[in-house]
Each structure stands twice: as structure tokens, then as C-alpha cells.
Amino acid sequence: MNKKIGNIFKGDKVIWMVLFFLCTISVVEVFSASSGLTYKSNNFIMPIVKHFGTIIMGVVVAVLTVNIPCRYFKLMTPFMLLFSFVTLLWVLMAGENINGAQRVIEIPGFTFQPSEIAKGTMILAEAQILSAMQGERGADRKAFGYILIIAVPLCTLIFLENLSTAVLLFAVVMMMMIVGRVPMVQLGKLMGVIVVGIMAVLTFVMAVGHDERREKPQLAKTDVVEAPAADKEDDEGFLGRLFHRADTWKARIDDFLDDRVVAPEDYDLDRDAQVAHANIAIVTSNGIGKGPGNSEERDFLAQAFSDFIFAIIIEEMGLGGAALVVFLYIVLLFRTARIANRCANNFPAFLAMGLALLLVLQASFNMLVAVGYVPVTGQPLPLISKGGTSTIINCAYIGAILSISRSAKRADDTKDGDAPGEDEAKAA
């Protein structure tokens, strides 16, 4: 029996355990945090049934991905790049509206987010470039240019609809270049350009965006400022949607930078509902938590099952539960680093580290938002937040890491003088 299970769940057992615990936490906490969805749908069980089905599908995808030899990931790169560019252009021009931004493509029966696929595609392409151009002193100087030729267009297309995802992806690209030993002079120049670009974007947002809740205080007495309807945004065209996103970004920056001391009785829960109720959830946990299923703030947080699920975890499971979640992501990162260190060739090592950095950095973004250390970004908590495309794609990333762990183990077993494993040699 154990042998049969081992034949299904191949690869590094520790990472499989991390995936199992994250998925278990996801099922429990999403079930608890989906009260708003059950109220809207008038169906108590259907939201969690759909999420559990997505989790199962994600695990199946992970199992299938584990069985893909590492060398085939290279062959997928040009096709994935073409697919990512086409779908990102598609969603930009004719995507479906979610939370005021066109981020998904709707196909009869399901929707998917091209940005989720584009993130993994960028990691795959960068790993291939870095591995192909490695020398004794690090990556060739030309590798820097090749990476930017792919990263800049991809990140720009994502940026036009989802700023936080573009920032996240480019941060991972930078980290991979550091791991891949790209010359520091080139990275330093790039950092200078990035700083100038950030200043330009902030200037644009603050000059063009409108925070109506602050410019028109009477709006604060209403429930929320409604986002434009999807058909209205379509009438505005691309520039209209861009200016609308500037309004959203400015409002989030204003909220984050507002350091005024406000008395509890004067705090406007309608205007800053998400941040306020996330803070209430954390504080009312009293450090020990209220127990699974006993959250009260889930009824007031619009994205309790997604963007702010970490606040619900703290409210129900206390600081111990929060520490467990953080620990699982840390284990994922360091275990992947150990796998990468065992790889006989550069490509699987860079690919594994890139995927792990992507998952852990996104998790860090989400958790920092929930506790109020960075502005609201809209990034879900990988493998825990409720999601469709994101959950399945993240499981595929875990499957790729596990596939690499299999070939790395074979290579590690032959370090005493034998040739590296077949998959490792062909992935070089």
C-alpha cells in the first residue's frame, strides 16, 4: 500500500507534506471565510464544494507535473511564451471585469487569469537563459539583455491591469538574476532605472488619480465607492480603464500613508472597511484565536476568503496558526534551495528556485497586507486563498519543483563518480 502511494506522490516528501498542510488549512479557512458567498448564493455548502474540487484538481495537476521529465520543461518555453503574450493581449482588450480591472478570460465553463500562467512562463524562460549563458565567473553579460527583452513586455502587459502582480513578477526576476550571478554593475543600473520608473508611476498616479472619498468627504457616509460597471469601462476604452486603475492605486496609497491618530468612535469603517476589519480580526484573536469556524470579521471583509484570509487565520487560529503558515512557506523555500543545490545542472536549479521564490514572495505580500505593513495589493495567499486558475497553476509549480527533486535525487546518488541522471543530463 505504501509503495503504491509512493508511486503516485513521487519526489520530495517534505514538499508534499507542505502542500498537504497548506491545502488542509485552505479547505478549513475558506469554508469559514466564505460566509459572504453562501449568503449571496443562498447555498451553504456549494462554495466550499467548488473550492474543494479545485484543490483536488490542483493536486491531480501536481501529480501529473511530477511525472514530466525536467528536460521537457525546456521544450515548452517558446509555446508558453507565445501563449502568454497572446492571452495577455486578449485579456487587455476583451477580458472580463473583476473588481474594477479586466484580469480574466471567460471561456464557456470556466475563466482563467493569463497573468498566473505568464508568471511561470517568465521564470521558465529566465531559468533557461541563465543556465545557457553560465560561465565560471557567472552569467554572460548578454544574458541580462535577453532576460529584459522577455521580462519588460510581459511585465508591462500585466502592469496595465494588475500593478501588484507586475511588481511581484519583476521582483522575482531580479532575485533570479542575483542567484544566476548576473554582473552586479548591470543590476545596479537596472535598479536605478526602476527607481526612476517608480517615481514616474507614483507621480502619474498622484497627479491623475482621484481619491473621491477624500476629495468628496460626503461620500464617506455611504457604504463604499462603487467601481464603474463593466459596460461603462468598455465604453471608456483602454485609457479610461487606465485612469480608473490610477484612482484605485491613489486611494490605496492615501490609505497606507495616512498616519493620523483617529479615536475609535471617529473611525470610518465604511471608508476603510477592508483594512479596518482585518485589524479588528487580528486584535480580537487575543493571540490564541477563537477557534476554526468562529470568525466574526469574515462577515464584514469583502475578500475574507482571498486577499485577507491571513487575517481570518490569525483571528481563528491565533499567533500559533499564523506562525505555522509562515513556517510552511519557509520550509518550502529552504527545502527547494536544498533541492537546487543537489542539481547537477543549472537549468533545473534555477527553475526550482524561481518557482519557490515566486510562491513565497507572493505569500509575503499577502501576509504583509493583512497585518497592515504594505498597501492593499490584491494578491491571494498561494495554495490557501480561494481561487480557480491561481490554485491549479500554483499546484503545477509545486509539481515542477517535485519533478526536479526526483532528477536531483538521482544525480545526488551518482555524485561518487557516475554520470548524472538521464533527466538531469538532458535538462542541461
Arrangement of strands in the largest sheet: 1-2-3
The biggest beta sheet reads: 3 strands, antiparallel
Sketch the topology as an H/E string, one letter per element: HHHHHEEEHEEHHHHHHHHHH
In whole angstroms, how far apart are the ends? 35 Å
Give the amount of beta strand, in percent.
under 5%
Structural class: mainly alpha
Q: Ranges with pLDDT <50 over ≥5 residues?
A: 219-235, 416-422
Count the beta strands.
Answer: 5
How large is the radius of gyration?
22 Å
Helix run count? 16
Summed over residues and divided by their number, the pLDDT gives a mean of: 80
Into which percent range does the helicity of residues fall?
A: 55-70%
Overall 3D geometry?
Answer: globular
Topology:
Elements: H1 2-8, H2 13-33, H3 35-41, H4 46-66, H5 71-94, E1 96-98, E2 101-107, E3 110-112, H6 114-132, E4 134-135, E5 138-139, H7 141-159, H8 163-179, H9 184-208, H10 212-215, H11 230-257, H12 273-283, H13 309-342, H14 346-370, H15 389-413, H16 422-427
Antiparallel strand pairs: 1-2, 2-3, 4-5
Main traits of this protein?
428 residues; 3-stranded antiparallel sheet; two-stranded antiparallel ribbon; 4% strand
Describe what you observe in this structure.
The chain has 428 residues and is mainly alpha-helical. The chain is 68% helix and 4% strand. It is built from 16 helices and five strands. The protein has helices at 2-8, 13-33, 35-41, 46-66, 71-94, 114-132, 141-159, 163-179, 184-208, 212-215, 230-257, 273-283, 309-342, 346-370, 389-413, 422-427, and strands at residues 96-98, 101-107, 110-112, 134-135, 138-139. The strands form two sheets. The protein has a three-stranded antiparallel sheet with strand order 1-2-3. The chain has a two-stranded antiparallel ribbon with strand order 4-5. A hairpin with a 2-residue loop joins strand 2 (101-107) and strand 3 (110-112). Helix 7 runs antiparallel to helix 8 (163-179), helix 13 runs parallel beside helix 15 (389-413) and helix 14 packs across helix 15. The radius of gyration is 22 Å and the shape is globular. The two termini are 35 Å apart. The model is unreliable at 219-235 and 416-422 (pLDDT under 50).
